[in-house]
Amino acid sequence: MVHFGQYIHTVKSIGNIVCEKGLTELDFDLEEIEKAGFEHFMLKEIFEQPEVMQDVMRGRVRLDEGRIQLGGIADQLERLRDAKRIVICACGTSWHAGLIGEYLIEEFARIPVEVDYASEFRYRSPIVGPDDVMIVISQSGETADTLAALRLAKEKGAMVVGICNVVGSTIARETDCGMYTHAGPEIGVASTKAFTAQVIVLTMLALALSKDRTMTDGEVMDALRCLNDLPERVKRILDYNGEIQSIAEEYKDARNFLYLGRGYNFPVALEGALKLKEISYIHAEGYPAAEMKHGPIALIDEEMPVVVIAPKDDTYQKVLSNIQEVKARGGRVIAIATEGDEEIRELADHVMYVPEGKAFMMPLLTVIPLQLLSYYIATLRGCDVDRPRNLAKSVTVE
Ligand code: M6R
């Protein structure tokens, strides 16, 4: 608790004028002020995302010119475009953003991408050299494993590009070039706005690599318009906050959760599961939806809620079949679906809606209800969501 001043009362006389001065002690808690009326930093950071998304794109998404401008890598763009392979290294949530980056860069720029846990990369004999480009992703810019992977790749002659949030952090300083995510300070240990900012940077990077090569001007323009509309769509999802809170009430006592998604939404399933486990201490697993039949289906019963990310895309019908398989075994389904989808309402126990969007944009929409679901489940269980047990915001040791 920080006390701003204390009560002081003075009376001064100047000639025959009497001045009385009073100073009242205000019992303000600095942390409360910083939370701007939200109960926790995590909730504030979830709700900040529409503004953060605008900040990430400001000056970079140039709708009038039909292109992306990334100042931090402008001089190295050709080297990146000529890379034989891009290796993305990160940890935790940043690694999930990296997986989405793989889908984006391969789809748009047609450059092969591999995604590695930084901790694994550094302790095997990675094949990496001057023809490769490594992208390291880190909110803090201080994660020990990511830093070690960066140093190893540099030693082997690869160019290393950083995607960091903290300006001037060690990773930002040691990379050859990079892009800041401009998400502002992230205080909650569970990463939310930094994740969506990382995914936007990766989307912009994939588009910058594609322009005049693998995408037509029209295709790039379409993608830029989608990015431009994104903050408004996210605001719409945040308006469903109350409904998500009610769903959380029903599931707060579950002991396990399964998260399923396909394509761009598979990394979101991993991220949703990580968010839930780190702040609510409920065991949760993320899986590619089509892999369910290769094992996890054995776990399904009425005690196993399954969160299925099922927006209207190319695999929608297949994901619906997964929902039917879960229901046939007595499982309870929480679906994330496209607004207006009534078919899924018939099948699932609960639906959390997101606005429609192109497949590549979906992670930036579907992750929002998952962040809120985890937040509400954890607070209903009485967990300290901003400071979950055993976790540090920045893991600077091995
Ligand atoms: O600062 P970094 O992005 O390098 O941190 C990586 C992970 O430690 C971090 O994402 C962690 O998984 C978060 N607690 C996830 O919410």
CATH top level class name of the largest domain:
Alpha Beta
**β-sheet strand percentage:** 15-25%
Bound molecules: 5-amino-5-deoxy-1-O-phosphono-D-mannitol
SSE class:
alpha/beta
Give average pLDDT, whole number: 93
Quick one: how many beta strands?
A: 14
Give the fraction of residues assigned to helices: 40-55%
The helix/strand series, from N terminus to C terminus, equals EEHHHEEHEHEHEHEHEHHHEHEEHEHEH
CATH superfamily of the largest domain: Glucose-6-phosphate isomerase like protein, domain 1
Structural description of this entry:
- This protein has 398 residues and is an alpha/beta fold.
- The protein folds into three domains: 32 residues, no CATH class; 191 residues, Glucose-6-phosphate isomerase like protein, domain 1 (Rossmann fold, 3-Layer(aba) Sandwich); 141 residues, Rossmann fold.
- Helices cover 42% and strands 19% of the residues.
- The chain is built from 15 helices and 14 strands.
- The protein has a five-stranded parallel β-sheet, sandwiched between helices. A five-stranded parallel β-sheet has the order 11-10-12-13-14, sandwiched between helices.
- Helix 7 links the parallel strand 7 and strand 8.
- Helix 12 packs parallel to helix 15.
- The radius of gyration is 24 Å and the shape is globular.
- The site of 5-amino-5-deoxy-1-O-phosphono-D-mannitol (M6R) has 16 residues, from helix 5.
- The site of 5-amino-5-deoxy-1-O-phosphono-D-mannitol has 16 residues, from helix 5.
